Amino acid sequence: ILILSIFFSSISIAHQGGLNTEGCHNDKEKGDYHCHKKNIQNRKDGFRVVDGDTIHFDFDNRKVRFSGIDTPEIGQVCTGNEGPFDCGSKAKEVLINFIGSEVPICNSEGLDYFSREISECFVNGESISKFLVRNGYAFAYRKYSKKFIEDENYARQNNLGLWKTKFEFPWDYR
């Protein structure tokens, strides 16, 4: 029993304090900031969300990158009112919640450098890209498209999503 109590107390010491709403915290012992991944997607239909702007249809061996937008990278840190958080994982979480149990319909516009389809995708007739940008979890990727600039302006003016945090644009972060 003594050995078990020492074991369990060492686990709690390594992660003292609570997690913020993004599932992240400062680890005072290690002197770093990190996030605990949540298993927020457990689908068996062969569809999966890779990150905030990439999805895979494993049943068709299709990799799709959303056209005209860019989201923060997984592991990219933004700072909000509750402190730093993984804004790439947050964008992915928002995307997963938006898609729900649906399978998106995608209109391919060609292939990118990594042989992914560049597509605008829809759930129940609503553009995923427009939703992400208009709610502040993606940015208009002006290098490739001007399509979502008005949606980005709306999110910025209304302080939505990542616009209420301190962040680095994903193309600058990379």
Average pLDDT across residues?
Answer: 83
Computed structural class: alpha+beta
pLDDT < 50 stretches: 2-17
**Portion of residues within helices:** 25-40%
Give the C-alpha Rg. 18 Å
Q: Note the run of SSEs as H and E.
A: HEEEEEEEEHEEEHEHH
Strand percentage: 25-35%
Summarize the SSE layout with pairings:
Layout: H1 2-14, E1 24-27, E2 32-35, E3 47-51, E4 54-57, E5 62-66, E6 69-70, E7 77-80, E8 83-86, H2 87-99, E9 105-111, E10 117-123, E11 126-127, H3 128-134, E12 139-140, H4 149-157, H5 170-173
Parallel strand pairs: 5-10
Antiparallel strand pairs: 1-2, 3-4, 4-5, 6-12, 7-8, 9-10, 10-11
How is this structure best described in words?
The chain has 174 residues and is α+β, with helices and mostly antiparallel strands. The protein has helices at 2-14, 87-99, 128-134, 149-157, 170-173, and strands at 24-27, 32-35, 47-51, 54-57, 62-66, 69-70, 77-80, 83-86, 105-111, 117-123, 126-127, 139-140. The strands form four sheets. Strands 3, 4, 5, 9, 10 and 11 form a six-stranded mixed β-sheet that branches. Strands 1-2 form a two-stranded antiparallel sheet. Strand 7 (77-80) and strand 8 form a beta hairpin. Helix 3 (128-134) runs parallel beside helix 4. Residues 2-17 have low confidence and may be disordered.
